[in-house]
Amino acid sequence: MAMEIKILDERNSWFLRFMSELRDRQIQRDSMRFRTNLRRIGEIFAYEISKELAYQMQTVQTPLGEKAMNLPVEDPVVASILRAGLSLHEGILSFFDRAENAFISAYRKHDETGAFQIKMDYVSCPDLQGKPLILCDPMLATGSSMAVCHKALMEYGTPRHTHLVSVIAAQEGIDYLQKQIPSGDCTLWIGSVDEELTAQSYIVPGLGDAGDLAFGKKLQN
Predict the structure, then answer these.
(1) Is residue 195 within 8 Å of residue 202, measured between CB atoms?
(2) How many CA atoms are closer than 13 Å to the CA of 166, on its beta-carbon side?
(3) pLDDT tens-digit profile of 123-182?
(4) CA distances from 29 to 15, 148, 166, 210, 214 (A)
(5) With bands split at pLDDT 50, 70 and 90, how would you rate the model's confidence at 116?
(6) Any bridge partners for residue 8, and if so which?
(7) Which end of the chain is more exposed for a tag (fewer CB within 10 A), N or C?
(8) What digits encode the pLDDT tens for the residues 21-71?
(9) What pLDDT score was predicted for residue 90?
(10) Cα–Cα separations (whole angstroms), residue 39 to 42, 113, 169, 220
(11) What is the reported pTM?
């Protein structure tokens, strides 16, 4: 079974306002606003993902009686790729406030030709066996980072279902993930799909470097 793909901007909602502000080069000069919009988008992704989790009828005692309600019976593990994923992670975590957390430090290591490989410095992760996993990264360009980090997390157990979350994706990155993770136990959640990648593998029109816009420019090695 192929990976299921869900794209949020295919339907009108207030999500589109937050997305437009993320992309707007004037508004994104305000790094606090940029982080806030990423958090808001994370909350929207979390709400949509919550519809896919397991529920069970339970009884809630009110001051005046009892109410049977269908309530969630599992909490996800929320994982993010540092550093760009932090604000998105925070938004998802504010919704799934009982979730466990995982963090991965990954980066592009370029060679003298300009080509790059994804290198990982650090992984912190709880047991994933049988749990829903949400792996988030704001930008899905080539798909390499998401694929490498997903593979690394599988060393910590097999999730019941994996939700890959990205705010803006290039079609090339989506195609790559479908080849690398051809599983019916995985759903890819995308805010918006852009068709073009530059020679340096940046998404066009995209929004720029999400990590720099959220947290300031980093020194280049």
Answers:
(1) no
(2) 26
(3) 999 999 999 999 999 999 999 889 999 999 999 999 999 999 999 999 999 999 999 886
(4) 20, 31, 21, 12, 9
(5) low
(6) none
(7) C
(8) 999 999 999 999 999 999 999 999 999 999 999 999 999 999 999 999 999
(9) 96
(10) 5, 36, 18, 27
(11) 0.90
Token pair, residue 21, equals 């502000």
Indicate the residue type of 83: R
